[in-house]
Specification:
Chain lengths: ~250, ~250
DNA sequence: CGTAACTTTGATTAGTATCAAAAATGGTGG
DNA sequence: CCACCATTTTTGATACTAATCAAAGTTACG
């Protein structure tokens, strides 16, 4: 089942965040993997599942979330083309959250063991994958701020800006013009609000001329004003990284 | 400035989460470092600072947080004995958040470069440090849920349980009996509430016989009932990890 | 074309914020 | 050891954001 070219979105994303040698690139492309197509709404894995594989998004959108005793749900992250949904599975044994397809989805499923071994053999690949999880951690921190200290309107605007920038970076759309991968109920679950209130806020943003909508597609009239409304500063999405030589020097 | 024994809290925490060979242990203990004492309230670093060092807590408590345009603050994490505050600095260049001492604090400051080189030379150490950041990521996800989908009382109870379990794991106190390292205003900044409301909630928890307080010390009357009130399941604090052999096998 | 999922609307309620000020605590220097 | 000051905690009154409940439209899909 070796179809290296299908892992290109992963390599592209990794290369965007850290330099990647040809050898590393080839090693990643040669990882054993299987392509799986998943319909919208289906679970990729559930809390408590054993972590035997890593999933990489090839097309479509997925989210990770946790369910609470009362049945409410908190979406923790949205994943798109090139994103690893659970790269941490190379090291962890159990899933502490669920993953679900938001749209029709195509993922590459890579055995966690293969990634673990590749990291052991190639410190530079390990570093690159680590950087990838650090960027996700940075996004997670920003979501924490969003939920903790921003009001509904600012929260929604912030999320809409983030989705725009990330889709643009993944080559899927323009930052100010894209198809919303989330329903209003899912937007609510991502922002800690109710679907009804999300609807009000979207209506309000439209009334103020910040966005227009038709069908699921979203249009920002003025990116700058929108970013202002969402207190959005994209720095956290593209952190620069140290370039420590892979070959040890002084420590030995 | 080689005083290896002072990094023991870090090694103890790492060893608690993943097996650590004697050689790895010694390599970590031999990292160059400087001990710094910091008074309560002082900043360790600020958003935008260059990430040249990694800080490890030896005693006392610290937090990381972000400040918003309106002056409000969201605490992102609480760090205690043995915790790395910013291990990710081995790979990242810029801080995207602030770190501040919550109490009188003692930290070991390790050059980021030294950690980066150690990780390159010893994949098993890299793996261990990565696991550490993955656990912090797991805590961050739980905080996201806390802020997004739990009401004030549940949020506070959850945080109090987490602080108990982590202090117990660090050998600082019993899970149900410890000195709160946060003021009520800081609790508010960690839970996305106001100090006034935190006070109400604490009063309520006390009225229901769940906790008693005198001075800053907190006493849980019934751990189980308290964990229930906070929807607290400690799994996320102690995830198990895969044990992939450090020596490459099949991939080469 | 029919049905299920999603969006929109309106009325009411609940939870938490805001503002203001008093009481308690903790640390400091005399 | 006490008096003083700054910080923290507590109390109360009021305002507002967002939740809840219910139902009608609308869209997307098979």
């Amino acid at each position: 089942l070796l179809q290296p070219s299908l892992l290109l979105p992963l390599v592209a994303k990794l290369a965007a965040h850290a330099p990647l040698s040809d050898a590393d690139r080839d090693a990643i492309l040669s990882l054993p993997h299987e392509i799986v197509e998943i319909e919208a709404g289906r679970y990729l894995f559930r809390e408590g599942d054993r972590a035997t594989n890593c999933n990489v998004v090839l097309s479509g959108f997925a989210c990770t979330h946790k369910l609470l005793p009362d049945g409410s749900r908190q979406i923790l992250a949205v994943h798109m083309k090139g994103d690893g949904i659970d790269l941490q599975n190379a090291l962890m044994i159990l899933m502490d959250h669920n993953a679900q397809a938001l749209t029709a989805l195509e993922v590459a499923v890579i055995p966690a063991q293969a990634i673990g071994e590749l990291m052991n053999g190639r410190p530079s690949v390990a570093r690159t994958l680590w950087i990838e999880t650090l960027i996700h951690a940075s996004i997670q921190r920003e979501w924490t701020v969003n939920l903790g200290r921003r009001d509904a309107r600012t929260r929604i605007a912030h999320l809409l800006c983030e989705l725009g920038i990330r889709q643009e970076a993944a080559g899927l759309a323009d930052r100010d013009r894209y198809v919303l991968p989330l329903t209003q109920e899912q937007l609510a679950d991502a922002t800690g609000l109710t679907a009804v209130h999300v609807n009000c806020v979207l209506k309000g943003l439209a009334a103020d001329g910040l966005i227009t909508r038709e069908r699921r597609s979203l249009n920002m009239q003025d990116w700058h004003r929108m970013a202002d409304s969402g207190q959005f500063a994209p720095d956290y999405l593209l952190p620069a990284q140290n370039d420590i030589p892979t070959q040890p020097s002084s420590w030995a």
